[in-house]
Design goal:
With about 475 residues, the protein is α/β, with parallel strands linked by helices. It contains 14 helices and 25 strands. One of its GO terms (molecular function) is medium-chain fatty acid-CoA ligase activity. InterPro entries: AMP-bd_C, AMP-bd_C_sf, AMP-binding_CS, AMP-dep_synth/lig_dom, ANL_N_sf.
Length: about 475
Amino acid sequence: MAEPLFPALAAKPDKNALRFGEISLGYGELAAVAGTLARELRAAAPVRVAIWATPTIHTSVAVLGALLAGVPAVPVNPKIGERELGHIVSDSAPALVLAEPGVTLPEALAALPRKDVQLTGAPGELPAEPDPEAPALIVYTSGTTGPPKGVVLPRRAIATTLDALEDAWQWTADDVLVHALPLFHVHGLILGVLGPLRRGGSVRHLGRFSVEGAAHELAGEATMMFGVPTMYHRIAGEVGENPELAKAFGRARLLVSGSAALPVHDHERITAATGQCVVERYGMTETLMNTSVRADGERKPGTVGVPLRGVELRLVDESGAVIATSDSETVGEIQVRGPNMFTEYLNRPDATADVFTAGGGWFRTGDMATRDADGYVRIVGRKATDLIKSGGYKIGAGEIENALLEHPGVAEAAVTGEPDPDLGERIVAWIVPSGQPPAERELADHVARLLSPHKRPRVVRFLEALPRNDMGKVMKRALEP
């Protein structure tokens, strides 16, 4: 018989499992509530269910109930637009939608049979664990290059990734995690809710992020925090001026940042104020987690660490040849393989075949990176939007963004390339200034001094804010001249 995905639900330790605001469930209560929902879903036998994934305890119970029942669940972003929602509902064809009681659903979901998620239930035997290869979640991509694709994640991938993070982060049942991430994607849902539950630990979800809220939890029982760079940017801006906040974040066993690169400048400000070195990791919807800085390893700001246990990673050049050198300079596309991988894109065999190499089962991530002699990976950006070919050089946008953020007149920065008749592409810097905008030449000279002249921006454009998605990633395709 397969190992349970959540052994603590059977063991029922006498401790809190989930807390969202003032609402909490212990392991015994959670086993009863999610187990009751699971038995009801098994009796109804839907092919798959949609979950209106608000940042609530009800969403966590809904996902857990579906996983216990062995019914594939489709978490839906509650801020999603009508067109994308229509595509997801049509593509995934859920038989049922699970939602928090009283919440109003958009038309595409309101047309489906609905089951409100209750926080009461009867003790009972949990359903038998499904096969490890059975679909667990179908998580839709952001759809930046076309309609969103449904990534089919098997139970095996979830268990493998969470157990590899147990090893890398020395994650135990004693850890209490605080975060305020959305629950429709890998970071907040799989790592931030299912991760602690698999370990037998606890979750404290803030609902909405605030530096003070996270600090309050870390000053109490919380030992770990997960966040995205926009959150850590706010932390970096406040801990230097507030000793109480700095002390609270300094108490954390582990501060983890993901979903986008954390600027080195923010790393340095947090470390200076708290003594903490933020840990970065790298993953994708299709692969879950691939690499991380280890809790017991060297912290190298700006890197995403080394491959996790069970994950194979290589860099390849434009011809597909494997890059053998580890010199921190040679840029290649990341390819990975391992038990953390997705099964397929739902209803898209063409797209599934397209992202794997012809031989060997390597997944082409589209992310560009370098690798140093110690095996630490440094992401320089997406192949489609962050690799700039200018004057015969291949330049990663990420290192220029980090350099720009070291200028005192820069609050936020994004770097793109645009066609240039002489250079092929010219480097464009999109800047949210901190106070009076600096001169364009001043910023160009600043980058040339820190990096090299061919990496200086040729064009600087000032904005009031950078366009970002719900996970804090800059949407560079929205940056138009």
